[in-house]
Amino acid sequence: MDHIRAMRVFIRVAERGSLTAASDELGYARGAASSIVKELERHMGVQLLERTTRKIRLTEEGSHYVERARAILADIAELEEEIGAAERSPHGLLRVQIPPGITRLIVAPALPGFIAQYPGIELEILSRSDLPDFVGLRLDAAVVVGPMAELDVVARPLGHLPAMTVAAPAYLERRGTPIVPADIAGHDCIRTISTATGSPVIWRFRENGKDVRIAVPGPLAFESPEAAVAAARRGGGILQIASYLVYDDIRSGRLVSVLDAFRPEGPTLQIVHPRHRRKPRRLKVFEDFLSDLNLRFRSKWNIRDSQSPGPGRLVTPSE
After folding, report:
1. How far apart are CA 263 and CA 162, in angstroms?
2. What are the pLDDT digits (tens) for 118-166?
3. Thinking of the domain 92-161+268-300, which architecture would CATH place it in?
4. What's the predicted TM-score (pTM) here?
5. Fold of domain 3-84
6. Residue 263 main-chain phi, psi, to 5 deg
7. Domain ranges in the chain?
8. Contact 129, 245 (CB under 8 A)
9. How many CB atoms neighbour CB 30 within 10 A?
10. Any idea where the HTH lysR-type domain is (predicted)?
11. How far is CA 136 from CA 142, 157, 193, in A?
12. How far is residue 277's CA from residue 274's CA, in Å, rounded to a whole number?
């Protein structure tokens, strides 16, 4: 029996939840995956799948086999890559989940340069903000904002994601400009909903050397950050959001930053991958690329503090 092929087939069956889908995806004949799994079960002397007419389910032994098989295949891939590293550049497929706004505004424009440097790497980017499903989506890694304590992952911090508190000039003319974080209580706030928790995001400020957290009031709440920005442009209220999402609006004057003297450090941006998998060289170079990209863009996202001439004036790389 070809143990390596059996591992790959069984992992794909577990990921797809279907013997037929696994066969089709791997380019085998329709019944090939079923035959390979049955041969594997005979060899192991245990049942790895529970089969019904409608679906299949991993047994306890099957779940353990999948976990160990993934680790073994990752070790093999890493060994092959290490041995051939001196002779060839990183290569292979990478499937990475990245939040939509970060994908569209930051990562995607820089990817042609990355591929030009590493032509052997094939990238598949999934633009999602929810918790990464490494098995179901066959992900190698995911870029996430904030902690991922609920997942068994290895995380590499990429830096902090600067946040800004902004509003449209028309709104501030009508309702006044908040001077300290406590003033937020008297304003309409546009809230964003966390895709991880389903609850509105708590606003953060830095006051007197301490972190201040405020559950803000407001009639509007959006899961989509882009929708929240659109509402802020039309004078819907004050919004706290990642700087990169409103950079162009601040420069054009559509939005104005407020409470800059109390700006928080922002949540940690990190790239994570499953703890039980070895990190291939192609993922290592992609992590380095993202880290460098974040450093280069931080100056573009950040704004001067409240002592700078004019509210909400941005620092551009040329300044």
Report:
1. 9
2. 998 999 999 988 888 888 888 999 998 876 666 678 888 888 888 899 9
3. 3-Layer(aba) Sandwich (3.40)
4. 0.63
5. Arc Repressor Mutant, subunit A (1.10.10)
6. -65, 130
7. 3-84, 92-161+268-300, 163-266
8. no
9. 10
10. 1-59
11. 13, 24, 24
12. 6
